[in-house]
Amino acid sequence: MKRWNVWIWPLALFLVLVVFLGVGLTLNPREVPSPLINKPAPPFELPQLHAQDKTFSQKDMVGKVWLLNVWASWCASCRDEHPVLVDLAKSGKVPIYGLNYKDRRPDGIAWLNRFGDPYVLSAYDVQGRIGIDYGVYGVPETYVIDKQGVIRFKQIGPVTPQVLNEKILPLIAQLNG
Amino acid sequence: MRNLLFFLLIFAFGLARVQAADDAALDQRVQRLAEELRCLVCQNQSLADSHADLAVDLKNQVREKLRQGASEQDVINYMTERYGDFVLYRPPMKATTLLLWFGPGLLLIGGLIALFMRLRRRASIAAEPQLTSAERARAAALLDNPDKGTEGNGMEHR
């Protein structure tokens, strides 16, 4: 019977536990992986936020790489990401379309007037039904959709400059290339 | 004329009762399904327990689907297509969930094996020590005459 046997096993178990807990700490339990990645964007046809009598559909965007950003005037973190989207819109690297989610039309329009409007246009999803089809469970969420109308990436929570530069912009360049 | 009115009244009453029973059955199905589905906003609550906006929307969606004649499985498929297996409190068995399903059992079996080996080892240590015949004779002599055993250590007051 060797002496080291007595403590090597508890130590080994402890190290395994440390590794598991350590990995667990770096994961975000609020980020639920979307089953929609690499699937066609769910179809919709919604009235536009500004032009009530016009509609917007994901079909209108076939042949283009674009962003669909889910936002609402009542959403505080939308305000955090807003300057990032405004800058991105100015750069002209990718068209951004909004999905105004469970909002009141005047509130949404006033919010855009106040903070700037980075969207080519916003679709108006007052009941949140299209949000459910897209698996939205919090606002903001952002989808990268390719030329074939397939969802290639989903950002849960605000788009930060880091996410934009490290994930979204390289992906868009690759999809456009 | 009076009779006709009477019959109409009875008919309407009966219809209302059937309707109410249908609604109660639907409520029950919605409730049962909602308990199986996880609320995505407040992750440790089921849809049934949660009053979050999205949970209410999703419950309404479940009710609508069931009323339109969807089966329980249809509704579960509808939810997992949008939110993934995460919404299920009973995850399906597949390659990525094998550890989830069998991990606890493996840990239990591992623990039992470790315990068993430990006990066996201890039993072999505690087994009666084997003495040579000379040792046996010396032990017997000591037991017969306790004085002899301490002989010659030089620390005895005589």
Describe what you observe in this structure:
- The complex is a heterodimer of chains A (177) and B (158).
- By secondary structure, chain A is α/β, with parallel strands linked by helices.
- Chain A has a single domain (35-176), classed as 3-Layer(aba) Sandwich (Glutaredoxin), CATH 3.40.30.10.
- Chain A has helices at residues 4-26, 76-91, 105-115, 129-133, 161-176, and strands at residues 45-47, 55-57, 66-71, 96-101, 122-125, 141-145, 151-156.
- Chain A has a five-stranded mixed sheet.
- The longest helix of chain A is centred in the N-terminal third of the chain and has 23 residues, at 4-26.
- Chain A starts with a helix and ends with a helix.
- The model of chain A has no long low-confidence stretch (mean pLDDT 93).
- Chain B is mainly alpha-helical.
- Chain B folds into two domains: 2-92, Orthogonal Bundle (Helicase, Ruva Protein, domain 3), CATH 1.10.8; 95-148.
- Chain B has six helices and no strands.
- Chain B has helices at 2-36, 53-67, 72-83, 98-126, 133-144, 146-149.
- In chain B, helix 1 (2-36) packs across helix 2 (53-67).
- The longest helix of chain B is centred in the N-terminal third of the chain and has 35 residues, at 2-36.
- Chain B starts with a helix and ends in a 9-residue tail after the last helix.
- Chains A and B meet through loops of A and helix 2 and helix 3 of B.
